[in-house]
Amino acid sequence: MKKKIKCFNSIKELIFNYKFFISKEIKIKGWVKHFRYNCFIIINDGSTINNLQIFIDKKFYSLVKKINIGISIEVIGVLVLSQGKEQNIEIYANKIKIIGKFSPEELQKTILQPKTHSFKKLREQAYLRFRTSIFSSILRIRHNISFSIHKFFFQKNFMYINTPIITTYDSEGAGEMFRVTNFDLKKIPLNEKGELNNNLDFFGTSTYLTVSGQLQGEAAASGLGKIYTFGPTFRAEKSNTFRHLSEFWMIEPEMSFSKLVHNMNFAEKLLKYVIKFVINNSYEDLFFLEKKNKRKIFKRLNNVLESSFERISYTNAIKILKSRKKVEFLQSINWGEDLKSEHEKFLAENYFNNPIIIYNYPLKIKPFYMRINNDNKTVAAMDIIFPYIGEIIGGSQREERYNVLLKRILELNLNIKSLWWYLNIRRFGSVPHSGFGLGFERLIQYITNIDNIKDVIPFPRYPNHAYF
Ligand code: ATP
Ligand code: MN
Questions:
Q1: SS (H, E, C) 185-219
Q2: Who contacts 106 (Cβ-Cβ below 8 Å, separation ≥6)?
Q3: Which of 4, 45, 88, 224 is least surrounded by Cβ atoms within 10 Å, i.e. has the fewest?
Q4: Per the confidence metrics, is the pTM higher than 0.90?
Q5: pLDDT tens, 401-414?
């Protein structure tokens, strides 16, 4: 009878189930990470931060000469308990097959060579960085964060909806949107006045990549009750900073029958749930990053779990900032002006040393859809600011009163032709409702304590960079 060989789909699966296969013959595949002494090959397959050690005896020595770091192999061997301290198990190889190989000279030119590369260097070969311990670690954490967000909303009975990526909405942040067109750019149709004739474009009007799914989300929530979106958003802003991407992912819940204070409570719950889930489920990857980057990760995350987010009105935030000597800030700040990141930084890092929620911002610096407060000067907005990252969530209670919203749209001279349906939501059983936008990559950045947002997304898009 032919002996049965247990084939494992991943090293993660093997490590999870090894107790049932000791002394049995198994099959596993992976990429060669490095060698130890002369008798071990260490492989990894991306499923876990843990490597697998393969013991090779003399009969393989001529084969091993052809094996270099980075190539892929298949191993059939006996699973044994390891004598080493670093791992529980190892494979005593009976058969080694080379799957894909390349030369050591080629290896020298890539980030696959085993040494510490800068994040910038990894980015230059972004299509290969999935193979590195550090980037695969970040992406496994990203995966768990994403899963935990869906899980949270599922448990809270929110419906996951998908909002359009191509929109006609062009009234907020003009100039910060990417145009979508299929005009032949060599023969752009102009009207009598010499302007672009958008009526002749694919959709019969000018279209853009979405900056947010909120408006459509509100429509969905006005029938489904509680919804969330989790999709890509696009910003054509030129700001090439450590926390801005031109293409990023946003989580946007929208809740009917919900006011600002509930919005704040809910956002805080979501963030804490995700952090807890990730500590529980990405423990090994977080631990690896903490050691590798010499950054405090667990302490920082546990602090967030233990704290209740400090809530402070915009007006009180300004009072605190103004009571400081001017020298502390590059830019002075007065009531009615938007907080600059140095001000947010000061409040979250120095003054409170905690995540903070700033609410009730001046009407003039916030978008038209936010609900006007009784003072007629502020709106029911709330931003959540994390130390070292800055704004991670921006949200508000929405203006649900038809007349008030109409007046606001007209005052701001917004394009009613593209907003009429949004206004109309207020005509058919309108209810108080609120929601927010959580920047997915900013959250990953905070959890992993990675400096640059470009290093927490598989293929970053930013000004002058759309490679791979
Ligand atoms: P900021 O002032 O930091 O540029 P914003 O006010 O433009 O942020 P919103 O329009 O409120 O941000 O978007 C909601 C959330 O999306 C933000 O709180 C942030 O987490 C995230 N976000 C915004 N712009 C970007 C970007 N360019 N890249 C990555 N995430 C972003
Ligand atoms: Mn912005």
A1: CCCCCECCCCCECHHHCCCCCCEEECCCCHHHHHH
A2: none
A3: 4
A4: yes
A5: 999 999 999 999 99
